[in-house]
Design a protein that fits this description.
Blueprint lengths: L1 H10 L19 E3 L7 E3 L11 E4 L11 H13 L2 E5 L3 H6 L7 E2 L6 H7 L4 E2 L5 E3 L3 E4 L4 H14 L1 H10 L22 H15 L7 H7 L4 H12 L3 H19 L4 H7 L5 H12 L3 H8 L4
Parallel strand pairs: 3-4, 4-8, 5-6
Antiparallel strand pairs: 1-2, 7-8
Helix pairs in contact: 1-5, 5-6, 8-9, 10-13, 11-12
Length: 302
């Protein structure tokens, strides 16, 4: 039920301010479908609904250790061959693997079942720590609430940062977490006054991306040493300060590229890069295309 709620929340209606999606649930056996909460879902669409879908997401199911019915595997393969994006949330990856769609690709799933996926499907390169892995027209995501990260990544990829950020705000979520970020934290987020200061520092950094923001300055504002700050930051966020800032800067650059006609040089300075050349280098390395090409993908701005 959590997985159904996640995809429905992201791809369902969000009022008049955001475009809607033609969202539907389907199954190989339409009718009442049991759920882990004991409340059945009545699903009216069969597998024929996949024939016109631009995006197909395989959701987790209790019997994932047994391959789905051949009709399901055929429908997934056919959708992929037709050009649909095919994604999997959590142990939904087992369905894609059974259909052969993950062979010779990287994939992830819930960390608890990553070893099983790798053992069952040796042609798949399983990365158990990733939140999601984008292999072009095949995307897999981790378990539970990481489904939000997968869905928001799909929105960002296909419709841009502005759309993903708007939906994230609507459902009160962080707008972006890198797919390579750890699925879970080895240590719990610290509590107390120090954490409140850390949260204040992160909020300040978000509002001051145009500044250099060295770790030493962040640590000074958190009233702690650089080494202690880095340790606490990683424990609280699951990533390093440098990686967190880089992701934040690039996400803000994406939004400015989509929603403004500011020169690339100005955008670079607004997000904390010294020049357009530095922004371009980071953008190509992390997003695969230069800023101008990204802008053309989402706007008519030359």
């Amino acid at each position: 039920m959590l997985a159904v709620g996640i995809v429905a929340e992201v791809f369902g209606p969000h009022g008049e301010t955001l475009p809607g999606f033609d969202f539907a649930l389907c199954t190989d056996r339409p009718g009442p479908v049991p759920t882990d909460l004991g409340v059945p879902l009545t699903i009216t669409h069969g597998l024929e609904r996949l024939a016109s879908a631009d995006l197909v997401i395989a959701l987790p199911w209790a019997g994932f250790r047994t391959p789905p019915a051949p009709a399901v595997l055929d429908a997934l393969s056919t959708a992929h061959e037709r050009g649909s994006l095919v994604a999997a949330h959590c142990v939904g990856a087992f369905a894609l693997a059974a259909a052969g769609l993950l062979d010779d690709r990287r994939a992830t799933t819930h960390w608890r079942f990553a070893e099983l996926l790798a053992r069952r499907h040796p042609k798949v390169t399983v990365e158990p720590d990733a939140l999601y892995i984008d292999e072009g027209r095949i995307i897999t995501g981790a378990g539970a609430a990481a489904g939000f990260d997968l869905c928001l990544h799909l929105l960002r990829r296909e419709y841009g940062a502005a759309m993903a950020n708007a939906v994230a705000r609507d459902v009160v979520l962080p707008s972006h977490r890198d797919g390579g970020q750890a699925q879970y934290l080895a240590a719990p987020v610290p509590e107390g006054c120090a954490d409140e200061r850390l949260a204040e520092v992160l909020a300040w950094a978000r509002q001051n991306l145009h500044e250099p923001l060295p770790v030493a300055e962040l640590a000074r504002r958190a009233l702690t040493s650089k080494r202690s700050f880095t340790r606490r930051f990683t424990a609280a966020t699951g990533t390093t300060p440098h990686a967190w800032l880089r992701s934040l800067r690039l996400s803000r650059a994406e939004e400015l590229l989509e929603t403004t006609d500011l020169p690339i040089e100005e955008i670079a300075h607004r997000v904390g890069y010294g020049s357009a050349a530095v922004l371009r280098e980071q953008f190509v390395r992390r997003r695969g295309v230069p800023p101008r090409s990204y802008r053309r993908s989402f706007t008519n701005t030359p």
